Amino acid sequence: MNKLRIGDLTIETPIIQGGMGVAVSLAGLASAVANEGGIGVISAVGIGMTVPGYRKNFQEANKTALRNEIRKARLNSNGVIGVNIMMAVSDFEDLLRVALEEKIDVIFIGAGLPLRKPSAIATDLLETTSAKFIPKVSSARAARIIFRHWSEKYNRIPDAVVVEGPLAGGHLGFKKEKVNEPENTLSSIVNETVQMLSLFEQIYGTEIPVIAGGGIYSGKDMFEVMNRGAKGVKIGTRFVTTYECDVSDSFKQNYLSCSSSDITIIDSPVGLPGRVIKNDFVGQIQAGKQKPIKCPWKCLRTCDVKNAQFCIAEALFNAAQGKFTNGFSFAGTKAYLANEIITVKETFNQIINEYFHAQETSILRPYEYQ
Predict the structure, then answer these.
(1) Residue among 232, 305, 187, 277 at smallest CA distance from 4
(2) How far is CA 281 from its chain centroid?
(3) Which residue segment(s) compose the domain that 281 sits in?
(4) Of 86, 170, 183, 182, the residue nearest 140 (C-alpha)
(5) Are residues 221 and 148 in the same domain?
(6) Distance between CA 37 and CA 146 in Å, rounded?
(7) What is the largest CA-CA distance in the chain?
(8) Is 85 helix (H, G, I), strand (E, B) or coil?
(9) pTM confidence score
(10) Distance (Å, rounded) from C-alpha 147 to C-alpha 116?
């Protein structure tokens, strides 16, 4: 298994832990993953909800919480720490600024195409930072738009790209009817993106790693997608059922007790489909029941607060705290495979062993992996 190299940054084990909000992947999980040689990722979305009294000033709470979580992760790890920031959040630039001020190693940018240039303050920080910028996309076309725009406007390109397929948990970059179409498999999107980026690699004389995510749970999944050109993988769901994950025990037990038929797709107030684990709350919203919303601040630009059926941030935060009467958990398609809570170290060992077993199998039966 080769190391993942992103510019001058070397990741010993090419596993990136997915940034899961709200309050699912914080300093506890991120530092544990970083200690195993992967990239530990703190999710910035709705992170301020962990601060008492956040409703008084949600924007300040988000900045305070993100700064605190980055510092806690640094105290517990000397490894590579990243943050995941959604373009769709109203305070994207504030969160970006905090991450840069705290000298974060990697910034993953999702839920939108990062084309707009940040404000003057953020731009000053960008000129001196060593942080790696990695957009998340759901197609080779989206990656091409971003790389071409950065190249033409800023004379630079992102340091890598995450390709997220339709089997991911949480908000999806696909329309409902497109999720199961053959051309949208993760392997095919990875392959297309690798080929597309070869031109930019030639122009800039550097390798641009493609990181695959969405539905990757086992080392076998990892081997197969890396056999299609990915240099690393992003795994979220499997790390939920670890002791170090920052959610409540009830959240983890929700994964352990679910079946494949419990994992479904709902319409999120932010205008995207989301993959979740069914419960009574999910049943109620699917039946059209309106859940009262007390929005302290429009945290997501794309959220239609006046017509929203429920608050996605509150639902996710409630679930993270184990309050499933008024919430639900996001989960990938393979969440039902979880059968025990183990440590992050044990999880890494399992994935790596599964990877090498798949590699050995490919030598014996090579045509299965073409």
Answers:
(1) 232
(2) 24
(3) 250-335
(4) 183
(5) yes
(6) 29
(7) 62
(8) strand
(9) 0.93
(10) 13
Are 230 and 259 in the same domain?
Answer: no
Token pair recorded at residue 30 = 């991120």
Please give the span between the terminal C-alpha atoms of the chain, in angstroms, as a whole number: 18
Q: Report residue 299 as tokens.
A: 């945290």
Q: With beta carbons less than 8 A apart as the criterion, state whether 151 and 199 touch.
A: no
Helix (H) or strand (E) holding 95: helix 92-101
C-alpha span between 189 and 139 (Å, rounded): 6
pLDDT given for residue 110 in this prediction? 83
- Same structural domain, 87 and 181: yes
pLDDT in the model for residue 115:
64
Residues 261 and 120 in one domain: no
Structure tokens at 42: 């703190």
Phi then psi dihedrals of residue 68, to 5 deg: -65, -40
User: Which among 188, 229, 227 has a CA at the least distance from the CA of 208?
Assistant: 229
Pair 235, 216: CB distance under 8 Å: yes
Average pLDDT on 110-134 reads 69
pLDDT per position as a tens digit, 164-215: 999 999 888 877 766 666 567 899 999 999 999 999 999 999 999 999 999 9
Phi, psi of 307 (to 5 degrees): -110, 5
CA distance 4 to 297: 39
Task: Return the residue matching tokens 């596993």.
Answer: 15
DSSP string, 166-225: TT-SEE-SS-GGGTT-GGG-HHHHHHHHHHHHHHHHHHHTS---EEEESS--SHHHHHHH
Indicate whether 125 pLDDT > 70.
Answer: no
Question: pLDDT tens across 72-96, in order?
Answer: 999 999 999 999 998 878 888 899 9
Rounded (10°) CA dihedral 219, 224, 226, 232: -30
Count of residues making up the chain: 370
